[in-house]
Amino acid sequence: MTDGRVLVAEQSPVLAGAICWFLREKGYDASAVSDERELFSTLAKETPDVILLGDERLAHDDAVLGQLRRDARLRDVRVIVTAPANRNGNGTPVLPAGADDCVTTPIRVPELLGRIRTQLRATSEVRAARSALRQATTELERAREDAVNNRRLVDILHEVTGELSATEIYRILARRVARALEISHCSVVLGQTGDVVGTVVAAAEDPSVTDLEVRLDRYPEILMALESGRAVLVQEATAHPLFAQVRELWEREGRAVELRSVATIPFSIDRRRSGVLFLRTERSERSLTRDDVEFGEVVVRAAVAAIRSAQALETTRADNRRLEALATTDPLTKVLNRRALLERLTAEMDRSRRFGSSLSLLLLDVDHFKEVNDTAGHLAGDSVLRQLGELLEEAVRKVDIVARYGGEEFVILLPETAVEGGVVFAERLRESVANRAFQVGSERLVHLTVSIGIASFASPHVMSTEDLFARADEALYRAKSGGRNQVRA
Ligand code: GH3
Ligand code: MG
Ligand code: MG
Question: Which residues surround ligand 2, an ion (CB under 5 A)?
């Protein structure tokens, strides 16, 4: 490492030799050329930090300086010219265009060294500035590249974060990463440490792959990523020790190895589902890089988060469905409970009012139900209520609503049904209960009858849901006191 490279253009070999000697003594790397031709042929080969045009002819030849300044390669080279001190009569030499500094002749060594030092400092400052600029430009380019990658990433994430199944997410992941990185092979392989067999759940190169089993001992890069929990990058597979055993296997099997590089990025969704994102390039393609791995890692993280949140959403929904079912159904008979019935009734009343349609309510009570309990036991009674619930559900239309009102009393709501229609339906229902044998225990059958009271909207004195219940209850009472097993409106 020298302090700077100085090229001395000086016609006189003695003077050139002396200047070079001084400069080298001071730690510079100095060499000399004797004329214009030699100057430019040397400059074509090397770039000094400072050129000293010692020869007055050269120093004041506009053509020479012009040529030096036009050469972009030499733009940071400082040019020092020599000039007689007394040229203008005031001791200050005229600095020709294109020159950076001037040394007065006859040359005095301290002045020359001072000028060279100053110019070299300037050169290094310019170079530092240029290198900073270059670095900024590189960073800008990298940022631009990142922006492009991020846009690809956003595309992928956007596609991945919908409400998709894990399988769909794997497929999108493989396809989009292959496309973004412009590589031929990208797949998702599920497996965990200790597994002998892995499952390829998606492969960009073959969309038909769904659950392809592969022997993991043939994929040391997958095993390694699963074991270490860290990404594995092999840029040149043919030379890499990781593939030594597999290479032997390939040779024995006489398989041509097209593999160039591989990267495996491990992930873990839950205890059952872990695996790797598996990137591969072939001989005809480029080698995979750290950047590819980083890109893959970011996308994998997003995909795992998406799968987890999709799963959480599904669990929450299932929980909600269960809760809702619990809140609205009667646990014994699985028909609607009383609370849900009242909600539905209110809604149906509103609808009837709005559209002027009719609505019938049937209140059904099992006749002498106590006897079932007394003779067959309470559990048998429960079972009979369950069977009755099923019978009622099967008997009604889709739009009708069956609910357990309490004990052995059921309510059936018939939308768009006036009292006449309600009576016909209730009569049919009464008959089918009467004709049915209900099972109690494994052997015994019992026969039952029911009494049904009906009220309808709109009819005189029925303005509210309470009126509807009150009227139906009155009708039921009449059915009971009339001898049971009958329908009253
Ligand atoms: P009727 O209605 O014809 O006047 O006579 P009944 O014997 O059905 O009399 P009531 O309606 O007053 O009595 C209802 C009986 O139903 C009383 C109760 O022991 C029984 N019961 C109510 N809820 C259940 C239940 O969930 N399981 C069982 N096994 N029995 C119930
Ligand atoms: Mg009762
Ligand atoms: Mg009863």
Answer: 365, 409
Read off the tokens for 54: 């010692």
Give the residue among 256, 457, 432 at the shortest CA–CA distance from 361: 457
Query: Per the domain annotation, does 177 fall within a domain?
Result: yes
Give the end of a domain, one of 100, 120, 140: 120
C-alpha of residue 50 to centroid of ligand 1, in Å? 114
Residue 145 belongs to a domain: no
Query: Domain containing 99 — which CATH number?
Result: 3.40.50.2300
Looking at the fold, whether 412 and 285 belong to one and the same domain comes out as no
Going from the Cα of 467 to the center of ligand 3, the distance in angstroms, rounded, reads 22
103 pocket-lining for ligand 1 (C-beta < 6 Å): no
187, 188, 192, 196: CA torsion to nearest 10:
-40
- 117 touches ligand 1 (CB under 6 Å): no
CATH code of 202's domain: 3.30.450.40
Number of domains in the chain: 3
Per-residue tens of pLDDT for the chain, all 489 residues? 457 899 999 888 888 888 998 899 888 999 999 888 999 999 999 999 999 988 777 777 778 888 888 888 888 888 998 887 765 555 566 677 778 888 888 888 888 888 898 888 888 887 787 787 787 777 777 767 766 666 666 666 666 555 567 788 888 889 889 988 999 999 999 999 989 999 999 999 998 998 999 999 999 999 999 999 999 999 998 889 998 888 888 888 887 778 899 999 999 988 778 999 999 999 999 999 999 999 999 889 888 887 887 777 777 777 878 888 888 999 899 999 998 999 999 999 999 999 999 999 999 999 999 999 999 999 999 999 999 999 999 999 999 999 999 999 999 999 999 999 999 999 999 999 999 999 998 888 999 999 999 999 988 888 899 999 999 999 999 999 999 999 999
Distance CA 6, CA 17 (A): 13
Amino acid at 489: A
Atom of ligand 1 nearest to the CA of 367: 3
| Range of the structural domain that residue 86 is part of | 5-120
Catalytic residue ranges: 408
Does one domain contain both 166 and 296?
yes
CATH number at 390 reads 3.30.70.270
Q: Is 484 touching ligand 1 by the criterion CB < 6 Å? A: yes
Q: How far is the CA of 427 from the centre of ligand 1 (A)?
A: 22
Q: Is the CB of 365 under 6 A from ligand 1?
A: yes
Instruction: Please tell me whether residues 232 and 303 are part of one structural domain.
Output: yes
Cβ-proximal residues to 112 (8 Å cutoff; 6+ apart), any chain:
19, 22, 52, 103
Phi, psi of 355 (to 5 degrees): -100, 0
Do 95 and 187 lie in one domain? The reply is no
Q: What is the number of the ligand closest to the CA of 409?
A: 2
Distance from Cα 408 to the centre of ligand 3, integer Å: 6
CA–chain centroid gap for 324, Å, is: 32
